[in-house]
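Posting this for the archive.
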Amino acid sequence: MSRRESSAALSRSRSPRIDSPPLIGLAHGSRHAGVTQGIEALLAEVAVQTGVATYPAYLDLTSPDLDAVAVMLAAAGERTAVVVPLLFTEAFHARIDVPAAVARATEVSGVRFTIAPVLGTADDVLEVVAQRLAAAGTGDDEPVLLYAVGSSRAAANAAVADLADRLSARRGAPVRAGFGTTDPQATDVLAEWAVPAGTVVPLFVAPGLLLDAIATAVTAAGWRLADPLGTLLAPLVAERYRASLNRARAGSSER
């Protein structure tokens, strides 16, 4: 997104509620052409549900970065904002990249940020994954592969595997986790499963190159590839915003 396009996005923001700081959805970013459309659609739905002005920003590969959004907000008179990391695990990006990006953005703009929790892998995310499976037409007895990016941090991958186990218990049918960048590789899980039909559901907010990469293997296996979670995540993003804002306000009142 160019600076001109970023400025246009800022000017098109929904009318915010009085005293409600803007919400910035901070995504990883991708060279995939569809990532900005997917993130913007999600944040537009969050704005409808909350009445809060929402803006996309990206950690890498995609514009605008958080610095650019922060500078625009400062120019518009905003002094505070809430950053909701659009990430599913407490891996390197959440633990290192997000705080570093926020610190840098505050330094260049003067805007003070509250960092909300990541989307995570708790039961509210499980519900969204179940909704996506239903929308894809997945049968109650069909196997499901939960496809995530993967991390060098074992605890992050274990959280995805635990989500798959809980989803399997809920469905009463097999659900396994597979990854795009670490073991077990999703393509290997598909090959080992050797069943004629099932659904791969991405633990992704928006389209990405890793989804394109697995599509051929999914088709060859006779399975279906569900859409990213997308706008189904809007209530969760809104909840992360409200919860972090409430905590920040409670902390201020105690001083």
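Residues 1-15 have pLDDT under 50 and may be disordered. The chain has two domains: 3-119+232-253, 123-230.
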